[in-house]
Design a protein that fits this description.
Helix content: 10-25%
Order of helices and strands: EEEEEEEEEHH
Structural class: alpha+beta
CATH topology of the largest domain: Immunoglobulin-like
Number of strands: 9
Number of domains: 2
Largest sheet: 6 strands, mixed
CATH architecture of the largest domain: Sandwich
Distance between the termini: 30 Å
Length: 173
Amino acid sequence: MGTFLLGQQNASYTVTVTNEKVAAPATGAITVTDTLPTGLSLASMTGSGWNCSGNSCTWNSALNPGASASPISVLVNVSASAPTQVFNLVTVSGGGSANASNSDPTAITVYSVCDVNQAGSTTVADVQNAINQALGAASAANDLNRDGLVNVVDVQIVLNAALSLGCTAAPVI
C-alpha cells in the first residue's frame, strides 16, 4: 500500500510482470493495462523493452519461468478532490497464459504543514516551505488579512491555522 498527497503530480506506481516458476515460458505479446481509479489521471506509462501507449504496455519477448520483465513506471497526477483511498487495478493478458490482475490500495492524504518535506518531523525547511508558499503566490487569494499585500502577516495567519489544526492538514493558501 502506498501513500500519495492530494494534488500531487507525477506520483509513481511500479508494475512488474513475473512468469510463475512452474509455468511454461510466456510467448507472444504480453499486455499490461492499468485502470486508474477516480481521482487519479495518467501522466505517463513507460518501461524498457515495453511498447506503451495510453494506459497499456505490450511486451513482445519471451518470458521464461521465474523471470520478470523490466518494470513499468506509471506516473499519475492526484486530483485535489481525490478520495482518501483508491484502488489501482492492473491487468496482464497474453503470453499464452490466463489473464491476471492485481489491485493496489493507495491512501490519499493532505500533507502536513509541520512536515512538508515528509521527513517524519518538523524541520526549518518545513517552516521555510510554508512561508515561501504564502509569499511566493502573491495574489489576492493569498492576502488573508485583506490589507492589499501578501506579507508576513499573511504568513502568520497560515502558521496559526496550521498550529490550530494540530499540524494535521495544510491550510489553503
